[in-house]
Amino acid sequence: MIKISCIYSVLVIFLLISCGSDQNTTRQTLPDLSHLQQTVDLNTHEGYTNNQHDGQVISPIINTVGDTVITGKSIFLKGFENEITGEFRRLPFEMKFTDTIKNNKHLIPEIIPSHILTAEMLEESRLNSNPTDYHLITTTGDTIITNVPVEIEAVEQPYYYTEPIDILDFSVNKDATMDVQYLDMEHGLKSSYIRSMLHDSKGQIWIGSDGAGLAKYDGESIGYFNSNDNLTENTLFSILEDREGNIWASSFSQPLMKFDGTKFITYPQSNGMPDDFIFTLFEDSKGNIWLGSGGFGLTRFDGEKFIHFSKKEGLSSNKIHGISEASNGDILVSTLGGGLNILNPDLIGKKSEDLFQKID
């Protein structure tokens, strides 16, 4: 029994030693990963197509025309020169809609509320009992009745005039091929943008600028009427001298102004004047003042009443850019987009429509 016990003990010890030996062997066979590179530098010269860690292929980037986009590598792009021949063609174009139509999420109720409308609920309203009258509505909400003489209340303003300043001598462009002289801001003008000009009966030059108001130049000095004094608008479109020596002017927001030498008289929008640009002013042989606006047609002022004409009376366009008078007394009107119009003034008050003849 003693021998058997000893042999059993020896076998147990041998097995334990063998297991410890195997574990040590297993530990020694595990790879050491600490020396492996954790990051890989990108090869910017040749690029790469696979993962340099595990060797797996990287899917390329394909653009919309089916070409493979090379990444991580410098490439050359070749451009093409297209010669413009001046001939253009419209290429056929077909639009395809691939989006599906979505159903309306807002369902119509089965019972729709309704209200009964009776004649008692209606209220009749008429602008004028004469159906031939034509109405223009300004941006300020005022109604302009055409082909009917109307009175427009004038507003008087006191006379102010800035102290004239001396103007330097005219200059000539150094590259000029002709003897053309000019005045500009370096000579004393307040603006280089001149919209209108008038040489009056006294030899003075009236200048309507864009931003500096109305100026009077006597050949040596220049003085200004502007919004800092009494001129209500600094941008002047047209200037006119009538037979009595009055100076008429039109501006961006003040349709008509008259200077009689002592005061300014204005005809504001709130009193019934068109509030669009008055591009041109003209006095006919009878002393009537004609106004051509940028959107409200033609206007005549006889010194007491104004009368407006529009497309309702036969104008081919409400945008007037020029007014003149023929030898027989007819008024010639040039329009923007409507050609030339001729008006016989003797028909005013006798005819409600077709007062104008159009010449294309």
Could you explain the architecture of this structure?
The chain has 360 residues and is mainly beta. The chain has 1 helix and 24 strands. The model is unreliable at 22-26, 88-99 and 122-133 (pLDDT under 50).
Please trace the helix and strand order, writing H or E for each element: HEEEEEEEEEEEEEEEEEEEEEEEE
Low-confidence stretches: 22-26, 88-99, 122-133
Radius of gyration: 45 Å
For the termini, the CA-CA separation is: 142 Å
Q: Write out the strand line-up for the largest beta sheet, numbering strands in chain order.
A: 5-16-15-14-13
Shape, please? elongated
Query: Which structural class best describes the helix and strand composition?
Result: mainly beta
Mean pLDDT: 75
Strand proportion, as a percent range, falls in 25-35%
Major sheet characteristics = 5 strands, antiparallel
Number of helices: 1
Q: Tell me how many strands there are.
A: 24
Residue share in helix? under 10%
Compact overview of the structure:
The chain is mainly beta and 360 residues long. The chain contains 1 helix and 24 strands.
Which descriptors apply to this entry?
360 residues; mainly beta; 5-stranded antiparallel sheet; 24 strands; elongated
Topology record:
Elements: H1 2-29, E1 61-62, E2 68-69, E3 135-137, E4 143-145, E5 155-158, E6 165-166, E7 171-172, E8 181-182, E9 194-199, E10 205-209, E11 214-217, E12 221-225, E13 236-241, E14 247-251, E15 256-259, E16 263-267, E17 278-283, E18 289-293, E19 298-301, E20 306-309, E21 320-325, E22 331-335, E23 340-343, E24 356-359
Antiparallel strand pairs: 1-2, 3-4, 5-16, 6-12, 7-8, 9-10, 10-11, 11-12, 13-14, 14-15, 15-16, 17-18, 18-19, 19-20, 21-22, 22-23, 23-24
